[in-house]
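S.,

Sequence below, as promised.
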Amino acid sequence: MPRTTSTLALCLLVVCLAAPAVGQTPRPWLVAEMLSAAKSEGGTLTVYASMNEEEALPYWSVFEQATGIKVDFLRMSDASIRARVAIEHRAGQRTWDLVATNLVNHLGNEILAQSDPPQAKELIPQARDPNRRWYGVAGNYNAPAYNTNMIKPGALPRSYEEFLEYRQWARKIAIDATDSEWLSAMFMHYGEERGKKLVGEIARALEPVVIDGHLNLARQVVAGEYWLALNNYVPLTVNLKLAGGPTDFWALDPVALVFAAVGINSRAPHPATALLAVNFMLSREGQAFLTRKGRLPTRPDVATNPPDVMDILRQRKIVVPVTSAAEHRRMQQAFNEIFRSR
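The prediction came back faster than expected:
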């Protein structure tokens, strides 16, 4: 798979428009001692991440311009990242410094180093791993989404129980194949027995189509292939809405919150550089940059785009199902039994 290395420099024009130079505006994340330690390591920061390159290239160009440190960015799917990281760790390879993707907490303590980036204290508490091995960079809040050309806001269910009254939507609704965190939140909110019964009834009544990829799901709702997503990541819906797509979300209890998180390799070739990069990602500047595409920050002092997103979400019960790898597998099996056994 090709790497995106010094080509990040091509994005400097975007960076200059989006972020001021170091000499013009203080950057709290750019701590002199941390920068000196990173510079002493030499070499290039290697990042494994699932962020699309349209966002990642200008994002990491901000870091490059501010520090003078080159970034070697390798994009893969969440599943590919976890598989590759596990294989390389078993082989004893020291090939990467940072990993940034969903479910970083499932990589294991032996793979992720403990770290204390100064900017972490500004995050919401749920985005800080108590063991200091991962930190949430963006919040993937979960909520249903719909095509605004197909369905009007007044016709939307006001609870998950009300979905059972919309049998006319059968086969016009879809869900991502990996939404086990959402299912876990449903079980936490309703209780496992009642939650499993409710979700099973919804699956039988509406026959949602199971498709691969949250972004793929969001795009198909915009295209009208499906009228609704039973659940999806709110930032993806917002991203396509900002681009002019006929889509929006509405929030129901519970709203599952999972994090796009970052962790440092316990065998990182450049640990000081990795720590500086994490500090950038958790900073106000780094998170504000990501909101341009609708991503939702994990810092309370960073405004969302659009500004009312969190006002809508906070009206509902937000559940954070941070599960172990074993529990994740159990919940994925339960998801498959409900949605794939029909």
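The beta strands are 45-49, 71-75, 98-102, 135-147, 173-176, 209-211, 228-233, 247-249, 255-264, 318-319.

Coffee later?
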